[in-house]
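User: Please predict the structure of the protein below. I'd like the answer in structure-token form so I can feed it into my own downstream comparison script.

Assistant: Understood. Taking the following sequence of 217 residues as input:
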Amino acid sequence: MTKHFRRELDTIKQRILTLGSLVEERVQMAARAVENIDAGIAQRIINTDYEIDEMEVEIEEECLKVLALHQPVAVDLRFIVAVIKINSELERIGDEAVNIAQRVEIIGKRPKPPFMFDYAEMGQKTQRMLKMSLDSLVNLDADLAYKVITLDDEVDHIKKDAYDRIKQAIKDLPERVGYYINLLLISRHLERTADHATNIAEEVIYLVEGEIYRHVE
């Protein structure tokens, strides 16, 4: 392997970790926006989404250039393939943060109804999963990646609880159905964020062990 090729791989790794940190920050902001129904934070998330989009495109272009010029094999090929997929997952997490922000903007303009689902636990678990998945990438730690996968069921359980309780709230206050639907959608976006974190963990397992973990029961 040439020194130039190694430098390019190191640069790609650093850039995907930088994107990961940026996306992690957006998810933290989204959780705070939900907790406080803070339209100001929500607007900042929406206005800066382009930063994630641009970085995602740049990383993909770098990966494709390395594939074309160096034709890597074995572990280096797995690294590039994993980065391309993780890159896409991170961009989608950024989109979910924007989706959450948009829900917060809408409900922030309306008076709060008597029942509000508390998303603090779901937000914390989702943030933890994302952090763990990124840490597993930094340290190439497959054991940590497996732990991320086991946490996904906990987030799914909270989403189901949110659905059941908000559905009852809609029955009790049908005139507030619009508010509650937007509140329910927040649970969907948090759950999808957790799914993307799980997908990142699966790619780390592939990178470290050389085995595709997806769809394993």
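That's the full token string. Residues 74-108 form the longest helix (35 residues).
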